[in-house]
Each structure stands twice: as C-alpha cells, then as structure tokens.
Amino acid sequence: MLFKEILYLIQKDLVLEWRQKYALNGMLLYVGSVVFVCYLSFGMRSNLLVAPVWNALLWIILLFTSVNAIAKSFMQENRGRLLYFYSIVSPQGIILAKIIYNTLLMLLLAIICFLFYGFVLGNPVADIPMFLLSLLLGAIGFSTSLTMISSIASKAANSSTLMAVLSFPVIVPMLLMLIRMSKNAMDGLDRSLSLDELLTLLAINMIVVTVSYILFPYLWRS
Amino acid sequence: MRKNWWKLLAIVLLVFTVVAGMLSEVPRLAILNETIRNLYFHVPMWFGMILILLISVVYSIKYLRNPTVKNDVIAYEAAKVGILFGVLGIVTGMEWAKFTWGEYWSNDPKQNASAIGLLIYFAYLVLRSSFSEQQQRARISAVYNIFAFAALIPLLFILPRLTDSLHPGNGGNPGFNTYDMDSSLRLVFYPAVLGWTLLGIWIINVKSRLEILRQRIYETV
C-alpha cells in the first residue's frame, strides 16, 4: 500500500516537473551559469585551480544548487493541493516519495554539473566510477537531509533564508565526508581507503531517513 | 528542603571542584603541565552540554506526544542552557589551546565539530523566533530539535574519531585515556561533571518556572 502510494507520488512529481519545464530549465541554467562564473573567475589563472580547490569548488556548487532545487519541493505546492493530499495519502508516503524524487533530480543535476564543470575547467579525476559513486551518495545525502529541512522551512515566514540557515550546519558533516571521498577518487587511491567514508555516509543517510520518516507526520498535521 | 537536596549537592560539588581542581596534586605530563587542570572545567562543559541537550530533545519528544506549554518551555530553556555550556566549552578550550597548541583556533576536527554543533542550535533559536503562533512554533521547533540532535550525533562522536585530533588522547598526544587517567584526576573529574550538569539543570529549572509564570500572567491579563 505504502509502496504503491510512493510510486504514484513520484510519478506525479515527475509529470508535474515535465509539464512545467521552467523549474527544471531554471535549475539547469543555474548550474550552467555558476560553472561559467567559476570558469571566468579562475579561467585566466588556471594554475590556481589545483586539485583540492577543483574538488571543493565542485561540491560548493552542488551544495548551493541542491539547496535551491530542493527548497521549492514543499514551498511550490499550493494550499488546496496539500489539503487534497492530506485526505488521500499517508504522510510517510509523501516524505519518502519526495526524498526519492529529489534524489533523482539531484543525481541528474549533479551529473550534468560534473560533465559541464569537467568540460570547462578540466577533469583531473583518475578514478571516474568511484567519483560517480561519491556523486550518487552526495545526491542521496543532500536530498534526504534537505527534503526534511525544506518541509520545516516552508512552514515559517521567510522560508528561503531559513532554508539556508537550517540546512548548512546539518549538511556540513556529510559534505566533509563527500569531499574527502571524492578527493580519494580524484587521486586514484585504492578504493578500500574510501570504505570508511562510504560506510559513514550510508550510516548518516540511514539516520536522517529514519528520523524524517518518524517526524514528518507531526509537521504534516499543521 | 528535602526536594532541594540536589541543589545543595551541586553547590558542594562545585566548591569541591574549584578548590580541589586548583590545589590538588596532578600528574606531570609533557606539553600539558599545569593546564591539565582544565580537565575539570573544559571537559565537563561538553559532558554537561550533551546531557542538557539530551534533556531538551527528550522534552521535545514529550511535547510531540503530549503538547503542553511546560514541555515546550523546558525544551527551549534546556537548548539555551546547552548553548551556554557549548560557548563556555569553546571559550575555555580556546584559552587552553593558546597555551598548549600555540593558537586559539587550530582547525582541529573537534573544534570544528563543536562550532558546527553550536551553529545548529543557533539555527534552532532563529527558527523559533520566526513563528508568531505559539503552538505552531512549539511543534515545528520540536521537530527541528530532534532532527538536529540526530544530525549532531555523527558530528560529535563519529567524525572526530576518523581523523587525527590534536586533543589529548588522540594522534599520539599524551592524554588521559583509560590507562593513564590518573586516579587522582578521576577523583575530581567525575564530581566536576556531575556538579556542572546539576548547575545546568538548576538554571533550566529556575528559568522554565519563570517562563511558565510569565506566560500565565500574559494569559490572565
């Protein structure tokens, strides 16, 4: 029952996103512009862009993109539609569907961002599959924690500022792990070295998803 | 008087901590020297902060199960006292770090983690102040409080263990691990932890009673 609900809600979000393409196109343009701005600011002095800076810059771009992309996942819904959902589906279904949908969205954005970024600023990554795995974990991690935060922030008065304030401290541990893991992948280190980071990230994701699953019904009621 | 025995205990323990902490014999370790006495003031701040934030989370959970003003006020006051302990912990730690590591802030994983932890709770205060309606504020900030605490646990307990820290006991620094924490240190350290935590609980107790009374006055006026 819950499974069917989730599938149905994800399908609804995908269809909605496809129909109003401006949101998706806006995000793509956002990623493109930010990468291009980075290129312009660094382009003339590409010797400044050493590997750690390259890596950190990519993750910062991804962080801001995801905060912007996920912030609208609850703010965009109007009141009437929320009331309608309230009467037909369970809150657990909604939060899980939103998390999965945001993960897909973030994965798409992260891969496009990585391709464009690598194309414009050069691609020093030695171990591409491992780097893609860290992008995948990043997409999952950002979407799990930011979805819950965006539902909290959407209840408050000036939600866009609040979204940033609430999400950054929560997401920093994850970001540090991701940066370290992707740096290992960039240097082409042995994959077993990243196992610690991988497991920690998975554990943090598990905690966040579980807590969201338990807490969301209380938010939903208001 | 019978109900207030723990307040007396807090006073006695804190007097003992300050007197014994300053005067007692401590083991001589390289680098640390006399600054080892900070163990009685800096480390209990973190223990106290975690315990007090735990109280805050417990009352947030209680609020979600049983929405009363009392649960909300206690969760809020406990979070504020937790922040106070955290700030004191950072300040005492920085002062100590100046003498042992040479810098107030040396990018140590535990220092960074505690700074991020404080940011989370400052965000909690901002979130609280952005609602005008009392019930909505209480419920949503309770949800964030629980969520933030769950995010704080990996930050404080898992991440610093994955990297080397400058803190005593990590990365080959002389420390007070289980085997070399001298029994004379423990004799003062455990009472200090208990004393500071009880003091925090006392502050929460007074402040939340005051806040509940204030809200009752607003209701009647």
Automatic annotation (TrEMBL), chain B:
Keywords: Cytochrome c-type biogenesis, Membrane, Transmembrane, Transmembrane helix. The chain crosses the membrane at residues 40-61, 73-93, 113-131, 143-162, 187-206. The keyword NAD does not apply. Its main location: membrane. Residues 8-153 form the Cytochrome c assembly protein domain. GO terms for biological process: cytochrome complex assembly. GO terms for cellular component: plasma membrane. It is found in: Membrane. One of its GO terms (molecular function) is heme binding. Belongs to the CcmC/CycZ/HelC family. This is Heme exporter protein C. It comes from Pontibacter oryzae.
